[in-house]
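Sanity check

After download, print the first record. It should look like this:
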Amino acid sequence: MKNKILFLTLAFGLALSANIYSAEAFLNWANTKNKAEQAKEDQEARLQKIKEDIEGKKEERLEKMEERICSRISGILSRVEKRIANREGKLETWRTNNLNNLENRHDKRDSKLAERYAKRNKARKAYYEKLEAKAESDEQKEAVENFQKAVEVAVVERRKIIDEAVQTFRQEVKEVISDRKFSIDKLVSELKDAEKAVAGKAKSNCEEGSDPREIMESFKEDLKVAREEFKNDREEIKKVGETVRKLAEIKNQTVKKAIEDFKNAIEKAREELNKEVI
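Expected structure tokens:
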């Protein structure tokens, strides 16, 4: 009996110890699990924070990039407008100088022509006086007078035709220059408007928060297209030099014919004169 009680006591103790050990093991497992879950949650929180920091920095970089790009666009446009203004100023100076040079050449030509006319008038008068001195009879005197009239008519006609040809040429050249100036100015104005439209589009895209790199690429491409259109349109405008050469050819042909007609008239008048005065 005594041994039986001892055995039961020992068995009960062992069972109690096993239960206590199991409980402690469960608690340890539960604590370990909680710690692992907490560590996982902490790690996820850290990763989320890192991700948010990265996204925040990325957005900050994009905002700064956008500010830089939008600022660059304004700067580029400002430089473009300045270049256009400088080009317009140089173009206007070049035009003014060319027109002044053209007027100066015209004035010099007119001055030389007036001097030549005066010398020829004096030479013809001296020639008429020699002819009059040779004329003895009334028929000879009349022949000299008719010759003089014929020559003066031919001189007036020749000068009239040449002067009109020269004035027409000058006027047409001025019109060609004026037309080309108008066309070029129109193209320059259109280019300026196109560049302003490109800049306005870029600024709107900046305000809307579009991708800065796409904004800059689109801005550069649009500017390139506008400039190429300007260049192509400018090349289609007829050059002044070619047109002026054609006008000069027409003028020269008119002058040449006037001189030939004058020579023929003088030759005919001289033949009539020679019949009476030798």
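If your output differs, re-run the checksum step. Summary of this record's structure: The radius of gyration is 52 Å.
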